[in-house]
Amino acid sequence: MKCFVxxxxxxxxxxxxxxLLARALTQAGYTTAALKPVxxxxxxxxxxxxxATGRLTLDQINPAYLQAPLAPLEAARLEGRQLDIPFFEDWxxxxxxxxxAVLVEGAGGWLVPFAPGKSMADLAEAFGLPVLIVAANRxxxxxxxxxxxxxxxxxxxxxxxxxxxTITPTPDASREANRRIIEAxxxxxxxxxxxxDSVDLSFLKS
Length: 206
What we know:
CATH topology: Rossmann fold
Order of helices and strands: EHEEHHEHHEEEHEHEHE
CATH class: Alpha Beta
Shape: globular
Structural class: alpha/beta
CATH superfamily: P-loop containing nucleotide triphosphate hydrolases
Strand content: 15-25%
């Protein structure tokens, strides 16, 4: 499994889902690189990915750490820094050597800017990875998913599918319908429930 993990928004559970996948892949015997190119505010996401695989240093997992909890473009500006595609390409193609599975978690959503005129979408394209969309399984997620999917397809990047993450245990009548509607457009690889600590990788065989 090799993919760029994007979210339909901040706070939809990208790190939680990516960590579950990374742990499951590692336990299944895959040499897994779980990466976070840009972290803003803190490095907890990168720490979670490191714990999931037990390999690579924090700096290998997360080469660009910005202190302000803002969009990477603004956080970098506050530090007098400017990130660019060549920097991330050099890092990526070096750090993934020898890895059977690669998961790259973006910052925020698909079009969040990290440099002038460059977004997370440009990173996925530069890395040559299909995109996995993580969305909160709740009323309103369909619009966010389909807008993200439309943008991915406009760049002619493959979409590996969607993972629906249930954020709260509160009943929501939309959940069952969400999956049915999404699957008419793109595969739903699995659904994650609150407190789930493992994930079934059987979708890799389908």
